[in-house]
Amino acid sequence: MRRKAAFHNLGCKVNAYELEAIRQQLESAGYETVPFEPGADVYIINTCTVTNIADRKSRQMLHKAKKMNPNAVVAAVGCYAEVHGEALQADPAIDLIAGSAQKENLPEMLEAFFSAAGAAQDQGCDRAEDLSDGRQSCDSLRPDRTGSHTRAFLKVQDGCSQFCTYCIIPYARGRVRSRRIADAAAEAAKLASAGVREVVLTGIHLCSYGRDLPDEENLQALIRAVHEIEGIRRIRLGSLEPGSVTEPFIAALAALPKVCPHFHLSLQSGCDRTLQRMNRRYTTADYEEACRLLRVYFDDPAITTDVIAGFPGETDEDFEDSRAFVEKISFFETHVFPYSRREGTRAASYPDQLTEREKRARCAVLRELNDRKREEFLQRRVGLPVEVLFEEETEIGGRRWWSGHGREYQRVLYPAGGNLANEIRTVCPQRLLDREYLVCEP
Ligand code: SF4
């Protein structure tokens, strides 16, 4: 009888990519994928530990799975499992723990678990656990196909060696490992032949891509290789940092028409004092220069970012500097996060930790700013032609639409009718709906 496996993902795009690969691995090993509901024999939860909230959600999901079927095998996989393996070992809801380095071996781990379960239980040991750090190369978790035939994530890099003082990720994912260009390009070609038109080059610290490879295998060369693949019509990049956004790099990107004018440039704080204490390796002046260059080489590109509010020791003046900088840069989208104290990081022991209330208040100020700037950006696009990759039919505001994304990643709605799935069309939106969607009227 085929065992039933249910899957749940938490966290980033890299995690989502890896869980899809795990799902396919288990299907090849004979498991049947079922919804994340009662009735599965195995529950795989790909956990995240980037913030306290991510930790809590990971734990909640693991317990929810055990509640749904107390006889099922509940497997904690990925970052939270890696960093908090010891705590999970003491948790009776968890049967199997596979940290970042072990998750590609899940079929074998489950096999071993099932065949040893009876004997192990007799000896009072009913779980499998392996958290030794075997991270030597970019793992071999690769999905063979994608659920969506429009856009697909392509993981090209894993790990981070930056050690920002607030971040637990280097401990959870290990040092930088990059995928060879030929290997990544082969996957992109496979995706193209499966009908995918847009790929998003993704990694934990994309800027570090190639540091562990021969000189000629760098991020620019990787983008060129993917650009050459017929069938791929658009390329988006995951998160960049000012250090890698040099003029030669941007000029090279601007010469590649498939590269979308949508850049996520991680900021974290718009205050130099805070940036230094975060161990970010750039200043606000570097950051501003990177944005200026992007705006010279691309016509009104969408620049998006992440900002942390309430880092330990962030004074009112520091926060005001940060807010004013975010306002000055004028982002399409600012993802705002309250500082989350991660045990084991340097910032966790910094004095002057802010209260949750103070952090929430600062987040609210930045989110209000984000809403305003985002609307300004979208409003500027009303009446302008936009090339849209259509994805799905959907209902919004009581009407049916075809929905897709422009090259700058703005959502565009087009009146329903016919089949536009996976089609690229240039349209001209006439208005903004709900401060979110650019709408084309019939
Ligand atoms: S660059 Fe900094 S914030 Fe980003 S993953 Fe690495 S350590 Fe974490």
TL;DR of this structure?
By secondary structure, the protein is an alpha/beta fold. The protein has helices at residues 13-28, 52-68, 79-83, 85-89, 106-122, 169-173, 181-193, 219-227, 247-254, 272-277, 284-297, 316-329, 356-379, and strands at 4-9, 32-33, 42-47, 73-78, 96-98, 128-130, 151-155, 157-158, 177-178, 198-202, 234-237, 239-240, 262-265, 302-309, 333-338, 386-396, 399-406, 411-415, 424-427, 431-433, 437-439.
Structural class call reads: alpha/beta
User: Can you tell me the CATH superfamily of the largest domain?
Assistant: tm_1862 like domain
| Ligands present | iron/sulfur cluster
Tell me the radius of gyration.
23 Å
Helix content: 25-40%
Largest sheet: 6 strands, parallel
- The N- to C-terminal Cα distance equals 53 Å
User: Biggest sheet, strands in spatial order?
Assistant: 2-1-3-4-5-6
